[in-house]
Structures are given as C-alpha cells and as structure tokens.
Amino acid sequence: MAKFMLKCFGLVIILLFGVLFGIQKAHFEMNELKSPSQKSIESLTTTAQEQSKATDAEAVTSHDIKTKQETLNKIDSFNVFSALGQNLTSWISSAFSVMISVFGIIIQEMLAVFSP
C-alpha cells in the first residue's frame, strides 16, 4: 500500500511540474509575441514616421472609410457551418431545458409520494 501511494505521489508531482513548466513556457512565448525585440521597435518607429509623412500627403478622409465600411456591410456572405452551428446549439439547449424540466417534475412527484 505504501509503495502504491509513493508511486501515485511521484506521478502527481511529475505531472504538476509538467503543467507548471508548460504554463511558464506559454507565458514566456506570449511575452515574446507582445514585445518585439529592440531592433524591430526601432524599425517600426522609422517606418511609422515614413508612413505618417505619406499619409499627410494623401490626406485620407473619413468619407473613404465610411464608403469602405458600407461596401463591407453590403457583402453579406452566408456561412453554412455557422448557420448549422447556431441551429445545433439552439436544438441542444432546448433539449436540455426540456430534460431538466422533466427531471424536475419527476423529482417533485417522487417527493410528493414519499412525503407524509
């Protein structure tokens, strides 16, 4: 029995350290994605300055953005998988609500039968 408990405890410790290591690695990778290296920051600032000079010359208006937004709103693509997923979730939620109400009625009737 003691040998079994030691093996289980050892496996739990190994799995715990594995999970902690994975979380730490994921955190490190996310920080690398969020904050690029110093060289890329310098290159971004120079390209941003160049782009700001170019946009000053072009003078983009809000009217252009509004027309683009209107054209995007007009393009209403129908996604079959999205529609199927919405229908499936509505069916499942209604089925579970019916099951819960039926179980509630059954439990209520059983309690009514067994109560004095």
Structural write-up:
The protein has 116 residues and is mostly helical. Helices cover 88% and strands 0% of the residues. The chain has four helices and no strands.
Categorize the overall geometry: flat
Instruction: Indicate the percent of residues in helices.
Output: over 70%
Q: Separation of termini?
A: 48 Å
% residues in beta strands: under 5%
Order of helices and strands: HHHH
Biggest sheet layout: none
Mean pLDDT: 80
Segments where pLDDT lies below 50 for 5+ residues?
Answer: none
In total, the number of strands is 0
The helix count comes to: 4
Structural class: mainly alpha
Specify Rg, calculated over alpha carbons: 30 Å
Question: What can be said about this structure in brief?
Answer:
With 116 residues, the protein is mainly α. It has 4 helices and no strands.
Please tag this protein with its features.
116 residues; mainly alpha; 4 helices
